[in-house]
Amino acid sequence: MDSAPAVERVAFFRESARIYAAVAETDRFHHHEALYWATREREHAQAAQAELDRGKGVARVARHA
């Protein structure tokens, strides 16, 4: 995944975080585990966005609703 362009990584990690957050809400037996992974994926998305900000002047990737 690190070889993908930062813009693709941002989109991937944001979508992954969204899915894990949804799992946390629907699967109570895995709630805390899914919250952990949602947070981790959000952090990866933020790091990739920061990479974009440094490299291309503040190009923001559109967030999904």
TrEMBL record:
Query: What is the top-level taxon of the source organism?
Result: Bacteria
The name this protein carries in UniProt is Uncharacterized protein
